[in-house]
Known about the structure:
It contains 4 helices and 7 strands. It has helices at 3-15, 42-53, 66-72, 98-107, and strands at residues 32-37, 57-62, 83-87, 90-94, 112-117, 135-141, 146-152. The chain has one domain (3-7, 32-152): Glutaredoxin, CATH 3.40.30. A 7-stranded mixed β-sheet has the order 2-1-3-4-5-6-7, sandwiched between helices.
Amino acid sequence: xxxxxxxxxxxxxxxxxxPDEELNVDSVEEAHVIMHKNPGCECCDLWAAHLRSxxxxxxxxxxxxxxxxxxxxxxxxxxxxxxxxxxxGYFIEGHVPANDILKLxxxxxxxxxxxxxxxxPLGSPGMEHPRPQDFNTIAxxxxxxxxxxxxxxxxxxxxxxx
Length: 162
């Protein structure tokens, strides 16, 4: 990881107060997401609304240098999408469902740098469509390898439980 990345990670982790109890939908209100997005991208705003429905707070930044932001975090091009968020020291790339983020924050899998939904699959949060697609959330390890973190089926309901 580049020095600027380490400095950012150290600053971010030092500024976040995490509760000792297990993360759940009720306690995630403390979880603050910083999202960098392509200027004018509306699907990114829909994804942010999806996270807010789960109790996350989302700070959105239009970033004309979004590609640089992604490459500084060592996100490989095949995993890239239209927005990149940061939470709890992890990157969240693209239209990742809130439950996958909650799972990541709860389990804290060793050596995972972040999770991604590559591209913009129809039916993923923020990409609602009458003809949804199956898609995977991919975990990227700090050594550059990856694995399927979660698989999602076409038409899956990503609504927050009431």
